[in-house]
Amino acid sequence: MSMDTAAPLDIDPLLDDPKTRIVVCCGSGGVGKTTTAAALGLRAAERGRKVVVLTIDPARRLAQSMGIDSLDNTPRRVKDVEGAGELHAMMLDMKRTFDEIVEAHADAERARAILSNPFYQSLSAGFAGTQEYMAMEKLGQLRARDEWDLIVVDTPPSRSALDFLDAPKRLGSFLDGKFIRLLMAPAKMGGRAGMKFLNVGMSMMTGTLGKLLGGQLLRDVQTFVAAMDTMFGGFRTRADATYRLLQAPGTAFLVVAAPERDALREAAYFVERLAADSMPLAGLVLNRVHGSGAARLSAQRALAAAESLDEDRTDGLEGSDGENLVDGRIVDQMDGKAEDRGTGGPSPEVPSSTTGPDGVSVDRLTAGLLRLHAERMQVLAREQRTRDRFTALHPEVPVAEVAALPGDVHDLAGLRAIGERLATQNEKAGAL
Prior knowledge:
By secondary structure, the chain is an alpha/beta fold.
């Protein structure tokens, strides 16, 4: 099946639709999710919407591209946005988000006790799944404020893009279930039996917690449980609410991939998972697609022409006894002229363009360029086969292709160019 049969993904109608309130960019690592999210946010803002981009990318490329010195847990307005809209950007601070939950759901005295508790500090700083859970929490907070027309989410750079969907439920269930019973049991049992039980449970968790010793650890856990007891039921409730928000009609998932086998295999898996979970998929964004302005010259013809030039050059040197001869005269390789050493006059039969400006044969340069073109055409063919395999598996998924840029995106102009290519890729598809 040809890529031409894939349904086109129309970006502008998606971004312009006031019913679209959340766009989630997901996919495997290194495929340009952060850049895509930022470019979509900028384009939506410049088309009149009030947008916030939430990124969880630790490389901080988004801040640099948007001209912001640093991103944190508070949305910052981006300057130099053209048009009537607004663009804000923020980077998830996992621990700060956890702290905000505590502050929002506990009175001031209890919140202080929780935030200063060593056990809580270990949990909030790096417990498995906390980042993805807090990303969902922050998304729910942003949507509840109803301050922005559109929220664009750059999902965490986890081993699998599916962790973003799985971790919140996993952590919510953990906090609501066995974890709490584990913590409360030793506090109720007390004494050495409780300490022994607690130490066994803690050894299964994090190395950080293991550094807290003896009775102090027990007191920390008891304080933590007493302070948090009324809060734990809300974790799973909010995780479930945000999960439902992702399933709502106002949400659009964009799977981002590169035209490479592994990235598109992950994309296909994610497409199937989104369908199984009834998540609204808008389409596939295919980044860094290579093109050529001379696509009608096939790799085979280019290689054949290069070989022919090489053969002609070799044939011309045969019988010359190591000298460059043209009609019996010696060619001066330094200035590209052929002179008759006997008469001192230039040869009218030999053009001065037989060598390039660096003294390299034009035929050799041409052959090299033809080989480079052949390599590019082979890359294009490989990408086309990879895209076709994805399209054959999922012909119902709309696709937007983004042509590869010559360099990295490092400013708003670069993000604007990406957005333009995303929106107009269907018009330019025939030229790429």
